[in-house]
Amino acid sequence: MAMHEVYGVMGVAGSGKTTIGKLLAEKMGCLFVEGDDFHSAANKAKMASGKALTDVDREAWLTDINAALVAAAPQQPVVLACSALKEKYRTILSQGLGTVRWICLVGETGLLRQRLVNRKDHFMPPVLLDSQLAILEIPQQAWTIDMGATPESIVENILQHMNESKNEAMPPSALGIIGLGVMGKSLARNAAEKNIALSVYNRFVEQQEEQVAARWVAEDPLRKGVKPFEDLALFVQSLAAPRKIILMVNAGPATLELAEKLAPLLAQGDMVIDAGNSHYAQTEQLTKAWAAQGLHWLGVGISGGEKGAYSGPAVFAGGEKKVFEQVRPLLETLAAKDFQGHPCCFWAGTQGAGHFAKMVHNGIEYAEMELLAEVYQLLKNVCARSTLRVATMLKEWQGGTVDSYLLDITIQILLHEENGEKTLDQILDRAEGKGTGTWALNAATDLGLPATLLAAAVQARQISAQAFAREKAQIAFDALDKVPLVLTTAALLKGYALARMVNHQQGFDLLTAQAKRNQASIDLAALAASWTNGCIIRSRLAQDLATMGAAADQFLWQPHFETARQEGFLALRQIVVAAVGAGIALPAFHAAYLYLQSLATKDSPMNLVQAQRDFFGAHGYQRKDNPQGPSVHTQWEPI
Ligand code: 6PG
């Protein structure tokens, strides 16, 4: 059975073993074992009478402590406080444990004696100090530490020794991970369990983030080989050249700050992978600035949440292709496997393309979530508000064309209860967001593209936060006449399936337009393959798109989807009409319907908008009889 580390804090009476051992265990978040607790009553009485214990007296005591350590060490690291004065005592204590790391507290005899005199309520009288000093054998391999310092600095010193000793003994790491927040820890666990030689770094923030990396490593014997750091320079030095570092810190200022601290510590050719949800424009700037110094900054989106980061996320990489090729094996090892067993690891293009792809993924995620929320809203009415029945109906969709991870978790959420109540019913209906949805919408607007479902999803969250206006509107409108909702779940399913397709197509259009702007191209079928597992928007639809090759670009209009398109459109119309009559707001369903209906409108009124523009601003317009011709202007009124 794998054993955790055992640390023995040893020394004569008065050296402070108990205080230091307890504090050390507390810092490491592990078990503390007090050796004195194992003494028999006879041993204690003997010592209290001023007589030193013999080796024979000590034998059973040492054996009992050893048994306690052997029982505890498979579960967690252990700190033992024990005098452990002779080598042969330590041999008994260590049996069956592998190596016990001894930390010997030493100091002036005067100070030891003083402490013993001041010590109240302890069976060991000061008179026994000399006999203990006489037999003390300091182990050659022990970390010998001055007991005179403050307990905090002694423990700090010990923790430092722990890091150094581990790190020195090991070859350089293949990968470094910076930031052990929720996502960082999951990704580091993923790497450690795949036997990637790993260094981890977490910053030191007094009283808040202390020894985070060391404690994380100590938590699990499987992380025994991982090197923990709190010193950025030492962390960098622990990595094999060219260095490969994954940043798992918050996007924005925290990422920029680390970029600044890291650059001077790195050498030409080193690679930093920013795996946060950074804005693609920031990634573009950093990539350029680092390239000018001979360093590589790679913007890589990682999707899958806490669980995905551990079990295998989807990875959307950006940066120079030849630099990506150097980190590809590592990223592929960490990534989930797609529907065909290939790694969910997609190179989206140079510079900010990886973060752009992740941002679009999140934009699609926003609308996917919104559509499911609206389905729930509709079904609650169809099902007379029984959450259980809504879940049962949604379960029927699982395994079919609309199968997805988000559908699965929605059903789980609907069924979840706490203290006999539906958890969902306890959650305030005010949705938040960290910004990637808004960024995606801004990017679409900037590229002149409609991302109507995304806009509906972003704005639905924004509207949900308008407490004052919501209250007023509910008073004003809620009681007004409504038409009972008449809708079949078959129609809802068809409309939902098409709305999802429109959402994905709008996302694809955004990716195509951005690639075109960068005079590049993007293989959308390959991207869809990486969306078949690991990421939040993984779904059966992604699988269908992954098999379409170049036709994926405009998949919505392919013959393959003709039935889904025709039936779905009529269903969307029914849904929207029924919901409007029943007084139910379905922004994403409306957005999908209106988008398709607008596209389907042959003689749209945009000719009037053009005329208005030309009327007041002489902006010009194109004529039907010469659509590619020059812009013409009409003098609409005398000046
Ligand atoms: C993912 C998620 C992840 C996160 C979003 C949530 O792919 O793993 O998209 O990145 O859940 O940032 O975004 P909001 O907080 O804006 O909803």
Could you describe the 3D structure shown?
It is a single chain. The N and C termini lie far apart (94 Å). The strands form three sheets. Strands 8-7-6-9-10-11-12-13 form an eight-stranded mixed β-sheet, with helices on both faces. Helix content is 51%, strand content 10%. The chain is α/β, with parallel strands linked by helices and 639 residues long. The longest helix is centred in the middle third of the chain and has 30 residues, at 353-382. The protein has four domains: 6-157, P-loop containing nucleotide triphosphate hydrolases (Rossmann fold, 3-Layer(aba) Sandwich), CATH 3.40.50.300; 171-351, Rossmann fold (3-Layer(aba) Sandwich), CATH 3.40.50; 360-599, N-(1-d-carboxylethyl)-l-norvaline Dehydrogenase, domain 2; 603-639, Single alpha-helices involved in coiled-coils or other helix-helix interfaces. The structure holds 6-phosphogluconic acid. 6-phosphogluconic acid binds at residues 277, 303-305, 362, 365, 433-434, 436-437, 535-536.
